[in-house]
Design brief:
Number of strands: 10
Shape: elongated
Radius of gyration: 19 Å
CATH topology of the largest domain: Alpha/beta knot
Distance between the termini: 54 Å
Number of helices: 9
Helix content: 25-40%
Strand content: 15-25%
CATH class of the largest domain: Alpha Beta
Order of helices and strands: EHEHEHEHEHEHEHEEHEH
């Protein structure tokens, strides 16, 4: 069975995956047995779909329908192929602007970032297939509909996306406190990608190492960090400011 945001039932979820439905996450009841559940788990592993094993009480809270131990959240948007999207944008624009989100998990922060990205002319947002905040009704609402306007691509590993962007002539700038360089000292006047980290952990060390530049924001108060959506807005508008000077 299916409604506007969920698919429930093992066979229905398998059919949805095979039909290339834009599935954000699959919740599977702990201890689920049977050939169909094994088939589903194999599909999830093969395609890298985000999944969690949860107690039946969690599934019961997610739907009142007969879920048979499996619920899938479907996205209200489709996700374009990453490499095809980047090639198309780079071919069209001299100085594209990309945004990479490393394990951002809060759907409202995600929505706010998408809204700011649309307002600042971001050409595409890249997230990981596993661990990233899903595009839910709350995401769409918080984005004020911008989620339908900015392409969002999913990748298996964000570090591979960094390398692919660099090979496409894009300068990758990671937003982190682990540097002495301020965002105002970094150039965004060429093709650029900004990396923002998770709310609690920041950017993973491997992505920091792979980035071309590290940059931070000045923090003059006693609190040592900004909300990620606010910090992202500052980075994006600094890129806009620099580009308007040209």
């Amino acid at each position: 069975m299916k409604n506007t945001s969920q698919i429930y039932g093992i066979r229905a979820v398998i059919e949805a995956i095979n039909a290339n439905e834009p599935i954000d996450k699959v919740f599977i009841q702990k201890g689920l047995q049977g050939s169909l559940s094994k088939e589903l788990e194999a599909l999830i592993r093969k395609l890298g779909i985000s999944s969690s094993y949860v107690p039946v009480e969690k599934l019961n809270r997610l739907t009142k329908n007969n879920h048979q131990g499996v619920i899938a959240n479907i996205s209200p948007i489709t996700f374009p192929d990453f490499e095809e999207l980047i090639e198309e944008i780079v071919a069209k624009k001299k100085k594209p602007l990309f945004l990479l989100l490393d394990q951002l998990s809060d759907v409202r922060n995600f929505g706010a970032i998408i809204r700011t990205a649309e307002c600042t002319g971001v050409d595409a947002i890249i997230i990981q297939k596993k661990g990233a905040a899903p595009v839910t009704a709350d995401t769409i609402k918080t984005s004020a509909g911008a989620a339908f306007k900015v392409p969002i691509a999913k990748v298996d590993h964000l570090k591979d996306a960094v390398f692919y962007l660099q090979a496409s002539g894009i300068n990758v700038v990671a937003a982190t406190e682990k540097t002495t360089d301020m965002v105002y000292d970094v150039s965004f006047k060429q093709g650029s990608a900004i990396v923002m980290g998770a709310e609690d952990k920041g950017i993973s060390p491997s992505i920091l190492k792979a980035s071309d530049k590290l940059a931070k924001l000045p923090l003059l108060g006693e609190i040592d960090s900004l909300n990620v959506s606010v910090a992202c807005g500052v980075f994006l508008y600094e890129a806009v400011r620099q580009r308007q000077e040209d």
